[in-house]
């Protein structure tokens, strides 16, 4: 039994709240919640939502697989509705080293204040994150997506470089050769200038060697 004054809701349960639709969705996840009501009730909302149902997050991902699980605990912070967000998920990103897909675990723990407008947001202490809830209402999937977005690495990479090597194992040899072939932009310079220049003066087959300087 939940404690008195503490309401435990099914994931994004909207049956008992004053809500209205923002966009059709079969299970009601797109409806807005009154954050003041949730804060005053000390509501606790378990989260279990597929990644594919978070449109604000999807553009940053390489695939829509995975499930976000966690909990939202609503309260007030100096009179402003707030929520303690605890989330866990594993999302698919693109490794910036090998450019192959990789799995990235995300874990969030944060308190987010939910002011109704910019004026109220200016009164929130600087140490707290804020997310505007216009007219005191907020889409819970948007709240979840925003929290996960802040946890995404700026340059995702496999932790172990060997994982990159394994990911590249299936890349055709021709593609690999084209990738590492050195560029020689001055290879035709001698012909254009009509001069007799030795090959060593116009380029070097080894990409790790700097161009020679004539003295």
Short description:
Helix content is 21%, strand content 25%.
SSE order and pairing:
Layout: E1 32-34, H1 35-41, E2 44-50, E3 67-77, E4 80-94, E5 101-113, H2 118-121, E6 129-130, E7 137-139, H3 140-149, H4 161-167, H5 173-180, H6 189-193, H7 199-202
Mean pLDDT: 76
Judging from the principal axes of the Cα atoms, what is the shape?
A: elongated
Strand content: 25-35%
Contiguous uncertain segments of 5+ residues: 1-28, 173-180, 197-215
Q: How many beta strands in the DSSP annotation?
A: 7
Rg over CA atoms, rounded to whole Å, is 27 Å
User: What is the first-to-last residue Cα distance?
Assistant: 87 Å
Characterise this structure:
- This protein has 215 residues and is of the alpha+beta class.
- The chain has helices spanning 35-41, 118-121, 140-149, 161-167, 173-180, 189-193, 199-202, and strands at 32-34, 44-50, 67-77, 80-94, 101-113, 129-130, 137-139.
- It folds into two domains: 32-162, no CATH class; 182-215, no CATH class.
- Helix 2 links the parallel strand 5 (101-113) and strand 6 (129-130).
- The protein is elongated.
């Amino acid at each position: 039994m939940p404690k008195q004054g503490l309401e435990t809701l099914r994931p994004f349960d909207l049956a008992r709240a004053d809500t209205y639709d923002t966009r059709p969705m079969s299970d009601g996840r797109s409806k807005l919640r009154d954050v003041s009501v949730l804060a005053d009730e000390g509501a606790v909302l378990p989260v279990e939502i597929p990644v594919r149902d978070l449109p604000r997050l999807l553009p940053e991902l390489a695939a829509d697989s995975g499930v976000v699980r966690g909990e939202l605990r609503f309260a007030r912070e100096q009179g402003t509705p707030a929520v303690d967000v605890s989330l866990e998920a594993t999302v698919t990103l693109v490794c910036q080293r090998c450019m192959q897909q990789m799995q990235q675990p995300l874990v969030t723990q944060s308190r987010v204040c939910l002011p109704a407008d910019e004026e109220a947001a200016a009164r929130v202490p600087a140490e707290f994150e804020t997310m505007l809830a216009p007219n005191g209402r907020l889409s819970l999937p948007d709240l979840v997506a925003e929290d996960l977005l802040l946890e995404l690495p700026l340059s995702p990479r496999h932790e172990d470089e060997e994982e990159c090597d394994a990911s590249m194992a299936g890349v055709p040899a021709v593609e690999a050769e084209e990738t590492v072939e050195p560029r020689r932009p001055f290879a035709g310079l001698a012909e254009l200038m009509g001069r007799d220049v030795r090959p060593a003066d116009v380029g070097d087959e080894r990409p790790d060697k700097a161009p020679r300087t004539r003295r």
